[in-house]
Amino acid sequence: MIPLCGQTDLVGPVTKEAVLQKCTDWQPIAAAYNPKPEFLERLRVLARGVRVEVFLGTWCSDSKAHVSEYFKVLEIADTPLIQTSYIAVPEDKTKRAPYYQGKDILKIPTFIVFVDGLEKGRIIEVPQKSVEEDLVEIIER
Which fold has domain 12-139? Predict the structure, then answer.
């Protein structure tokens, strides 16, 4: 099987820029995504900081779809109050544990949302509604 993203997968801490540079097929998905403006506005006016840990696989079609959408949501929302770290995990399930030790990750991608330092919720594999709607719902709980 040919990897979705070049010949080798990214693993470990990565940046949005590194993912988009390596996985050029993610770029059109991010560019074409049109997040719902009312949820973007709710993200723009956050009153407190939010931290999101995104566990993704450059080999994973759900990561390709939904992490690309997340990239676009953050780009348009343009708020410094949402800090995101991206951790790429290998396709081989037997080699993933070191990348998410103690995080209880069962499916990729997983977005873990922290507010005031506490985990408030997760988007696991596929959003229930949309990336931006799920994110707002978790933050506003």
Answer: Glutaredoxin (3.40.30)
